Amino acid sequence: MVLYFSGTGNSRFIASILAEETKQELLSMNDLLRKKEQLSLKNENFIIVVTPIYAGRIPRVVEKCIRKSSVSKGTRVYFVATCSDSMENASDYAEKLCVSKELDFYGMAEIRMPVGYILMFNAFDEKTSERLIKSGKQKAVKLAQSIIKEERFLNASHKWSVMSHVINPVFNGVLMHSKGFRTTSGCTGCGICAESCPLNNIRLKNKKIEWGKDCTHCMACISKCPNEAIEFGKKTVGKKRYYCTIPQNNNNKISALVSKNQGEPL
Predict the structure, then answer these.
(1) pLDDT per residue over 28-70, tens digit each?
(2) Per CATH, the architecture of 2-162 is what?
(3) Which run of H or of E encompasses 126?
(4) Domain ranges across the chain
(5) How far is CA 81 from CA 29, 40, 41, 45, 59, in A?
(6) I need a surface site. Which of 89, 106, 159, 221 has the fewest CB within 10 A?
(7) Do 74 and 104 contact (CB within 8 A), yes or no?
(8) CA torsion, ordered 64, 137, 224, 87, to nearest 10 deg
(9) Is residue 259 scored above 60 in pLDDT?
(10) How many CA atoms lie less than 13 Å away from 257 in the CB half-sphere?
(11) Under CATH, what is the fold of the domain 177-232?
């Protein structure tokens, strides 16, 4: 089984490659969260969890989903982190999570992918993004080979991380909120943002968008808006949006930076 959580398409793309190479079923944690369903996996030889990194750790919604799951004890669990820079000490926390669930932690590998968190950073240019997606696919294929051979991932060595241990709790407790989200005059009330939110935190009322308090900053609403009509205060104004689409018809064509989104489900 290959599980993934994705806001801008990076983890979904890598998960689709891993599922294809290992011949495993692909399961979206976004869908589980939207439907408020509990993850139940029995008699799986191994599980691959593909997730972005938020402030040096896996997202709390991913951790919560796994912590509440029903998985056979001793199941091998591989983590694949999609990040624009470094996964910091995320592996340490992923291992602790597995220990608490009596699962066999088989390591965390990182795959560098394009920037999607435009609240703090600028999206890479299209050529850089497409180069990273291409190299990410190649690394995913190699990781799949290790998984098939039942090899443990050789974790990247990272020094003690201020981001993972100190900044992360502040980021989650203080900075991760939806107060800054707003729509511009370009909003048509299409509802794609509401359909894309993994936490059902966006509501469409009389073609007007309203955000609730439960937000994980996945950027799905911003990255998937077909009219680029969602902003977060002034932090995203003028910034190019990023979304990774999965190639169609096996033509290996990758769309990295899109202004008119294809509307693919996450």
Answers:
(1) 999 999 999 999 998 899 999 999 999 999 999 999 999 999 9
(2) 3-Layer(aba) Sandwich (3.40)
(3) helix 126-148
(4) 2-162, 177-232
(5) 15, 22, 21, 21, 11
(6) 159
(7) yes
(8) 40
(9) no
(10) 17
(11) Alpha-Beta Plaits (3.30.70)
